[in-house]
Amino acid sequence: MTVPRAFVSLTEVGPRDGLQNEKTIVSLETKIHFVESLAQSGLTSIEVTSFVSPKWVPQLADAEALLRAIKRQAGVSYSALVPNEQGLARALAVGVDAIAIFTAASESFTKRNINATIAESVARFSPVVRDAKAAGVRVRGYVSCAVACPFEGKVHASAVRSVTRMLLDLGVDEIDLGDTIGVATPAEITQLYEGIADTLTPQASVLHLHNTNGRALDCAAQALALGVRKFDGSVAGLGGCPYAPGASGNVATEQLIDLIHRLGYATGVSMDQLCDAGRFISSAIGRPYGEAHAGDASCQRADGTSASV
Ligand code: HMG
Ligand code: MG
């Protein structure tokens, strides 16, 4: 008798965190195909776009058109970033399944990213969470700079714990901890979870890793050992934050899933189909697949038994 394997959930953030950082604007048709092909892979959660100010992130100005155009698959949650009530109204008008509000554990980053102090951002999100929940929409709360800030350096877990508490008090459904600039070490992941243990357990958290220093997979392995069961990834390692200097791509979903499968967990994602999506978007933006910590090696390793679980 086969014992069912423990499950790890993934949210694919490439269409949002990946494409928000591209210098050229990707066409609506390309985005539609990208999101639809991701949904074919078995991923059940896709962060499609952002309802932020198009002056701040012109790359995602077509958010409504994209969410209206994609053919949605049953069982897939299509979500978007929302910075304020104006963003929520736009997101609800096109029927998102979930929203993500976003603040940080660093004052300097919060100011540069959303033009607010941390306290102002939480106050701004209060009606957003209330109205989203009233509309039956799930809410994720991102805490960026959970390990380090591009302007302030090392961030202490006490700052992460404090903003996490504020977001939980607003009623968010989950907290997503972001290593926004991709500099964490596995030891810092342990310190982070130990430092916030009375407020957020590893099991209840989502971990959002960037891979600037090439340690994201080591951090993910450490997080799995601590009990984290929800991660974000971006196919082909696309990504970054336009308001976080030095931040490079997110951890590549292909490599993350390859790691998770090798460690004996199930994800429900077909690596072959995921790699098709990764190859498609890489070619569409003119980048060799494999350049930025991408998935070809993971795709090859995934041929055969580990291709689909
Ligand atoms: P502001 O300039 O202070 O806002 O920006 P405002 O209220 O003064 O509005 C300015 C203009 O923007 C107005 O238009 C508003 O109507 C418009 P105007 O009158 O000048 O024509 N506006 C909007 N338009 C459409 N949709 C909206 C909206 N809101 C205002 N929702 C604001 C404040 C929050 C809007 C701005 O700072 C913003 O949009 N920031 C978003 C920045 C962003 O998207 N950063 C990247 C995502 S965060 C990230 O990547 C980290 C993450 O991946 C996790 C991790 O890695 O740690 C999530
Ligand atoms: Mg990010």
Describe the structure.
This protein has 309 residues and is of the alpha/beta class. The chain has a single domain (9-300), classed as Alpha-Beta Barrel (TIM Barrel), CATH 3.20.20.70. It has twelve helices and ten strands. Helix 2 runs antiparallel to helix 11. Bound molecules: 3-hydroxy-3-methylglutaryl-coenzyme A and magnesium ion. Magnesium ion (MG) binds at residues 17, 178, 180, 208, 210, 241, 250. Magnesium ion binds next to loops.
Salient structural properties:
single chain, 309 residues, alpha/beta, TIM Barrel, eight-stranded parallel sheet, two-stranded antiparallel ribbon, 10 strands, binds 3-hydroxy-3-methylglutaryl-coenzyme A, binds magnesium ion
Task: Give a short summary of the structure.
40% of the residues lie in helices and 16% in strands. It is built from twelve helices and ten strands.
- How are the strands of the largest sheet arranged? 1-10-9-8-5-4-3-2
- Helix content estimate: 40-55%
Q: Specify the structural class.
A: alpha/beta
CATH fold name: TIM Barrel
Whole-number radius of gyration? 18 Å
**Overall spatial form:** globular
Q: List ligands, each type once.
A: 3-hydroxy-3-methylglutaryl-coenzyme A, magnesium ion
Percentage of β-strand residues? 15-25%
Assign the CATH superfamily.
Aldolase class I
Largest sheet: 8 strands, parallel
Multimerization state = single chain
Mean pLDDT: 93
What are the segments in which pLDDT stays under 50 over at least 5 consecutive residues? 301-309
Question: Which architecture would the CATH scheme give at its second level?
Answer: Alpha-Beta Barrel
User: What is the C-level CATH assignment?
Assistant: Alpha Beta
| Tally of structural domains | 1
| First and last CA, distance | 17 Å
The topology string of helices and strands comes to EHHEHEHEHHEEEHEHEHEHHH
- Count every helix, treating DSSP H or I runs of 4 or more residues as helices: 12
